[in-house]
Amino acid sequence: MRLRLVVPLAIALFAAGLPASHAEERLLDVYQRALQSDPRIREAEAIFQAELETRPQARSALLPQVTGSASRSWSDAEGSQRFLNFNPIDNELQTIETAFEQDARTTNWQLELRQTLFRWDQWINFRQSDKRIARAETEFEAAKQDLMLRVSEAYFEVLAAQDTLGAAQATQRAIERQLEQAQTRFEVGLIAITDVQEAQAAFDRSVADEIAAQRVLASAREALRELTGEHVTRLVGPRPELPLVPPSPASENAWVDTALAQNLELVATRIASEIASDDVRIRRSGHYPTLDLVASRTDNTTRADRANNGGPVTPFDSNQQSDTISLQLRVPLFSGGGTSSQVREAVFRHRAAREAVDRVTRQTERQARDAYMGVVTEISRVRALEQAVTSSRTALEATETGFEVGTRTTVDVLEARRRLFDAETTFARSRYDYILNVLRLKRSSGILALQDLEEIDSWLER
After folding, report:
1. Of 220, 214, 237, which is closest to residue 431 (Cα–Cα)?
2. ∠ CA 154-155-159 to the nearest 5 degrees?
3. Would you tell me which of 63, 207, 214, 437 could form a disulfide with 11, CB atoms 3.0–4.6 Å apart?
4. Which of 305, 331, 357 finishes a domain?
């Protein structure tokens, strides 16, 4: 009995100690928190902002490139020079040796302008930058839709866990009363000891169910905290009269067609295939010649002091300027097979990208069909389970009445109460599954938007 009381108490104290907001949170409130806090959406935003820089980078390669360089050097030199000199008087060659010392300072600067005239890879890169930005934008929007669905799943998972815990606690209280009644009846000799033992076993099982429900609720709250960055425990549940709206249009193929045309993951994969095709062309351009226009200005100034044979120092200054305009044609002849290897690599990557398009296409169609059938069948399932709860409650009341008059046993009452508990938890879960399937259908079709969360929010309690 001590373990039975300590474990639920410990879990309850743990849950009570969590920092939580005092106001009730609605679905849109939680989504806005996650939009500011979820690391995955912030990662996607940073990637999108980074990809926006590919266009100015690609454009810059087509614009003139101006570079400047400058240098200054100092040099000290000493030595001797020997040379032959013809003496016409003596009519013979004479060897003359001269010693010298020289101190020189040289200043050099150059300014170069280079304009691309033909580089096929740069033009492809420039056109490809638009595709890369479009893919990043599509993936960012897909991340937003994914966040909407993840928040909704975590939100309703917490509500489902709360419903399960509430039903488990109510069942435990009812079984506890049933156990007390059984013990009283046994003491006065109205029932056998086996009925008391059955009631005790049912009570023990209900305690275990409550412990498991507490654990599931704590885990669900942690999953929600992972998205929002803080604990949110007071959530608003759906109204009893939850509207069960069938998909519009009421055609599975129509939703599949929309998904194949607008699913953001599929759109991003198609763009990625086009980018891979461009990469093949870029690699092949490694075999093409390039043509650049180059204009440069160079200035070289030297100031030197020179002394020969220990004589007087003679200054020696020089200044040279030159302007050059040229066309530079480069033709790749042999790169050790590296360019051809890069082309083959790009071809294989393009093949992989095309296969990814086929994979995501099939996945998208499956998700759309599954979500559509989920919405349609969940509507019928919610209605059937609602009736099942009513029937189970009526059956329990009848069984309890029969127990009072002696036509039903304790086991019958416990079994009826167990069926009611299962019916209530399954019914609550089916309502949340219906809402989530509605969101999954729109997510797979690429049309999930903030307005859909606002509509779901209107279905919640006021």
Report:
1. 237
2. 115
3. 214
4. 331
